[in-house]
Amino acid sequence: MAATLHFAFVLALFTGQAIGVNNGLARTPQMGWNNWNALGCDVSESLLLDTSKKLVDSGLRDVGYNYVVLDDCWSDGRDENGFLKDDLKKFPSGMSAVADEIHKEGLLFGMYSSAGEMTCARYAGSLDWEANDAKSFANWGVDYLKYDNCYHMGRFGTPKLSFDRYKVMWDAINGTGRPMLYSLCNWGEDYSHTWGMSIANSWRMSGDIYDSFTRPDDLCSCTDASSPFCVAPGSHCSVLNIINKVAPYVDRGQPGGWNDLDMLEVGNGGMTDEEYKAHFSFWAALKSPLLMGNDLRTLSASSLTILNNPAVIAISQDPDGRSVARIRREMNAAKDKYGVGEIQVWSGSLYGGDQVVILLNAAGEDARISASLEEIFLHDGPEGSAPQNNEEWEVYDLWANRMEESLAQKILDAKAEDLPKLFKDANWYNSTELSYKEGLKKKDARLMGKKVGTIKPGGSLTAKVKRHSMEMYRLKSVGLGGKRKVHAKEEL
Ligand code: GAL
Question: Hey, which residues are catalytic here?
Answer without folding.
Answer: 148, 208
